């Protein structure tokens, strides 16, 4: 305490946390708004069918878009290199399982070609991903 004439001045020893809380609330709102946007992957219109849900891993997911582009784990791979890429990724692994997401507008023949390349790479289990039926 300092003594100035008759008045005493007390030093404030508490931290004002209100500005900190304000900043944290603003950051919380920003992350809540942007988080769903960051989870969006490759856009495809999946066929609707009632089936049991499966937990998908990005590494075991092949996506075929409406313009016939193939993505493995988010990376674009041409159809003619799909088999070699899968062989190199699954070499020495015991769990040879992969899931296929194909746009519903893709011709059946193109999906069958992709499935043949997947089977040719030695993948033992191939699952088809759909959207839940309404």
Order of helices and strands: EEHEEEHEHE
CATH class of the largest domain: Alpha Beta
pLDDT averaged residue by residue: 81
Stretches with pLDDT under 50, minimum 5 residues: none
The CATH architecture classification of the largest domain is 2-Layer Sandwich
Strand order of the largest sheet: 5-4-3-6-7
Q: Domains counted in the coordinates: how many?
A: 2
Helix proportion range: 25-40%
Q: Determine the CATH topology of the largest domain.
A: Nucleotidyltransferase, domain 5
| Biggest sheet features | 5 strands, mixed
Radius of gyration: 27 Å
Shape category = elongated
Secondary-structure-based class equals alpha/beta
Number of strands: 7
Structure description:
Helix content is 34%, strand content 19%. With 134 residues, it is α/β, with parallel strands linked by helices. Helix 2 runs parallel beside helix 3. The model has no long low-confidence stretch (mean pLDDT 81). The radius of gyration is 27 Å and the shape is elongated. The protein has two domains: 37 residues, no CATH class; 71 residues, Nucleotidyltransferase, domain 5. The protein is built from three helices and seven strands; from the N terminus they run E-E-H-E-E-E-H-E-H-E.
């Amino acid at each position: 305490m300092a003594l100035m004439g008759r008045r005493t001045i007390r030093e404030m020893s508490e931290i004002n946390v209100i500005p900190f809380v304000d900043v944290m609330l603003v950051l919380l709102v920003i992350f809540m708004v942007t988080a769903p946007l960051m989870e969006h992957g490759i856009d495809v219109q999946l066929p609707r069918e009632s089936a049991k849900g499966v937990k998908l891993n990005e590494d075991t997911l092949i996506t075929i878009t409406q313009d016939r582009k193939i993505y493995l784990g988010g990376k674009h791979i041409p159809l003619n290199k799909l088999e070699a890429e899968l062989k190199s990724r699954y070499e020495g692994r015991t769990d040879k399982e992969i899931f296929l997401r194909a746009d519903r507008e893709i011709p059946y023949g193109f999906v069958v070609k992709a499935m043949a390349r997947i089977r040719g790479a030695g993948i033992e289990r191939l699952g088809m991903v759909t959207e839940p039926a309404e």
